[in-house]
Structure formats: structure tokens, C-alpha cells
Amino acid sequence: MFRTKRSGLVRRLWRSRAPVEGDGETDRGTHGSSGGCCMGKAAKVAKSNDAGSEAELKALTHSVLKKIKEKQLEVLLQAVESKGGARSPCLLLPSKVDAKVGQQSYSLPMLLYKVFRWPDLRHSSELKRLSCCESYGKINPDLVCCNPHHMSRLCELESPPPPYSRYPMDYLKPPDSPDSGPSSSDTGGTTYSAPVGLSDSLALQESGESAHWCVVAYWEEKTRVGRLYSVQEPSLDIFYDLPQGNGFCLGQLCSDNKSQLVQMVRAKIGYGIQLTREPDGVWVYNRSCYPIFIKSATLDNPDSRTLLVHKVFPGFSIKAFDYDKACSLQRPNDHEFTQQPRTGFTVQISFVKGWGQCYTRQFISSCPCWLEVIFNTR
């Protein structure tokens, strides 16, 4: 019975492995090797045969998994089958055990990350550990967490950026029309001029509540849905449907928008994103099955006169906001970086649909479902 259960867990794990691009099983919800501005050069090279044959990889994976304790296999299976949607504990395993596939050697964590998350993963430098993990911030421990869903792929920004993510400052000038909508929506700038939003933000600070480091507004096209969500905890899940989710649930908000496109995109938000304040800045982890698009002043070159919209694929993380850079970008003659009292800088995040020069949507306010994250920089 013991052997049967262990073998059954191993077989289920192998069936749940990440599909390799081109094998006929690739699912858009688990991809991570398509081209894009966050992929970096390493992920864009042609798929090689260094990883060895499928049979060799299967034999090695089965051999490694059979040496893992049964309870640890259950933890790994829970994480893999839920695609990170269910909370799973750390999977602490020896970090210095190497496995060889073909001519390439991998550490035990790297092998599990490749098999169950990113088949095109080449080096540990492409990874970022999530702050929820016990191994976060630890250097070379004897035991390291090998839970593939406690890791994310680093979003490597291109230089220069691809054409679709670049649009000139002329597009950012507020329209003269009085009914053009809030300036923060149409310009993508840091000025938050929606009266209700400001009153909500002021109320949060004047009501005596514990200090928040940011507030989040959810928009559908030019209409804000729900109130501002104040964030005190270091990490926040923003999602539409998450099996075990605490945080900002967009699915619980009442929306009157009947647009088929809005409803379609809303349903694709799924596990959404994770917003985390870390020592080096604020990170966004894309937990959904579709790309997200991010614009932030601190992602741009300070000397550039263009703003960039960065595409972040599922499973990838990007440092969306840097407090040190934000302080140095306070240029009074540039409306993009002008701050209103109490509102601070903002980051715009669109689900599924992008915006910019080479899209039909020039401004984020034309995107079906998007977020505005307003940082408290005081």
C-alpha cells in the first residue's frame, strides 16, 4: 500500500508537469517562453536539446521524486495541481544535490522548477523567491524550499524597449475636453484627480486607521468600481477567483458594466496579481493565466522622454516601484511626475489588454479592467 500510494503520487506529479512549447500540450495559462519585453534574452533563444530526451528526463524525475518523503510529495502535488492557487507550505530539501540530464547538471531545486514551472529555465539568476517562502532572504542554506510556486521568474526589461511599449509625451497631454474623464486615467500620470478617489484617500488618513503604504483603485474603462482598498500588510493578493484567497477580491465588487469585452477580461483575471512591499521596492507577481501590462515612472530611464508600458507574462515578477528612484524623479516641470498632496506616485496595471502607440487603446482608461496603485510616500 505504501509503495502504491508513493508511486501514484509520482505518476500524478509527472502528469502535472509544465508543458514544453511545441509538444502539443502547451497551455497559454502556463506558458513562459513566448517572446515579450519581460522575457529577457535567455528565454528567447531557440529551444535546445541540452535538457536531454523526454524519456531521460522522466526517468530522472521519477528517481528524484521517489526519494522524497510521502508528505513532501503531497505538498508538491498540492502546489502543482492548484497552479499556486492553494496555499502550500515550503518544500525543504537539500540544496546541494545535483541531477544530470544529458550534458547539463542541475541542482535539485532547479530540476523541480524546470519540470513543474518553466521548461526553458536556464539559470537560477532568472528566478526570484516570493516573500511568503521560508527561504526568502536566506543565503545558501543547507535546506532550501523547492516548492515551484514559491518562486517567480524575473522580468528582464529590454533596452531599447519594443515599439509597442513606447509612446511619446505628446500623447500624455490632458485633452481639452471637459468630459474626458480623470486625468490620471487618460494620461497615465501620477495626478489623481477623481474627486471621489481623493475623498476616500483623505478619509483613510484622517480616520485614525493604521498607516497604509498604498491604496488600490479598480477601474473598468473610465469607471471606477468600488471604493479604494487600503493596504497595511506587506503583501496583497488582488484577484477575481482564488481557491484560498484573502485580499482584494474583484469578483465581489458590484459592476454595472455590460460590455462583453469587460466581462470577458474580468473572467480572465483569475488568480490575479500579488503586490508586495519589499526592502528594495514594490514588486508585482503575475499569478494569472494571461499577461498583465504595467506602467511606472520608476521603470523608465530618467533621461528618457518616453514612457514605457511593460508586458509581464504569467509566473513573472517585476519591480514596479522603487522609492529611491521616485524621490529623484520629482521634477516640477514634468507633469508625469507631479504629485498632488497625499496621493503620491501611482502605478497603472491592466489585465490581459495592453495600451500604447501600437495598440488601438492609446490610454489605460480604454482598457477593460485595470488597477491604479497609489503609493503613500510620506
From TrEMBL:
Residue span, MH2 domain: 213-378
Top-level taxon of the source organism: Eukaryota
Primary residence: cytoplasm
Cellular compartments annotated: Cytoplasm; Nucleus
Cellular component, GO, one term: cytoplasm
Residue stretches making up the MH1 domain: 8-160
UniProt-recorded name of the protein: Mothers against decapentaplegic homolog
Biased composition (Low complexity): 178-191
Name of the gene: SMAD7
Protein family according to the UniProt entry: Belongs to the dwarfin/SMAD family.
Any one Pfam family match given in the protein's UniProt record, by short name: MH1
CDD domains with a match to the protein in the record: MH1_SMAD_7 (cd10494)
Ranges where the record places region Disordered: 166-192
Keywords: Cytoplasm, Metal-binding, Nucleus, Transcription, Transcription regulation, Zinc
Lineage: Eukaryota, Metazoa, Chordata, Craniata, Vertebrata
Record-linked InterPro entries: Dwarfin, MAD_homology1_Dwarfin-type, MAD_homology_MH1, SMAD-like_dom_sf, SMAD_dom_Dwarfin-type, SMAD_FHA_dom_sf, SMAD_MH1_sf
BP term (GO), one: regulation of transcription by RNA polymerase II
SMART domains reported for this sequence: DWA, DWB
Molecular-function GO terms, alphabetical: I-SMAD binding; metal ion binding; transcription regulator inhibitor activity
